Amino acid sequence: MELFTPDFGLIFWMFVAFAVLFLLLWKFAWPAIMKGVDSRAELIDQGVLYAREAKEQLDYAKQQAEEFEAQARSRQADILREADRMKSQIIEEARSEAAREAKKEMDAAKVAIEQARKEAQQTFRDQVSAAALEIAGQVLGKQLSDTATQAKLVDNLLDKIESAD
User: Fold this and answer.
1) What percent of the chain clears pLDDT 70, i.e. is strictly above it?
2) Are 144 and 153 in contact (CB under 8 A)?
3) Total structural domains in the chain?
4) Is 152 part of a structural domain of the chain?
5) Which among 6, 70, 117, 142 is least buried, having the fewest CB atoms inside 10 angstroms?
6) pLDDT band at 123 (very low <50, low <70, confident <90, very high)
7) What is the distance between the alpha carbons of residues 163 and 137, in angstroms, rounded to a whole number?
8) Is 151 contained in some domain?
């Protein structure tokens, strides 16, 4: 059973070796380990702080992007409203211009029709007077030999006919 029961000297020297090792570690290694742990903790704290700042900046950037997007939508709506108003105005101006042009054409057509009617009346009057003179000349013979007298007689007859209408 000697294997399971250590000798007092062995235990003593093991305890002395452990105490020396513990003192060396406590004096030299422990401060370096603690310094490393502290620097690592500080680095982690800084990383957390940087992450928070980055999150705040990202949130601020998102908020600004949403504001810019809302402004862009508002501008787009304004531009579309203005374009629609301009379209309506252009259409109304085109309609007005077309109506003016149509009125001009109608007035010109009325004037042309009136002129053609007057020309046709004058032509008809001339033809009727020539026919009446020919008939009168055959009926009356030589009584109306003067052309001025003939034209006066025909004009009087036509005026009577027009006033009867």
Assistant:
1) 90
2) yes
3) 1
4) yes
5) 142
6) confident
7) 25
8) yes
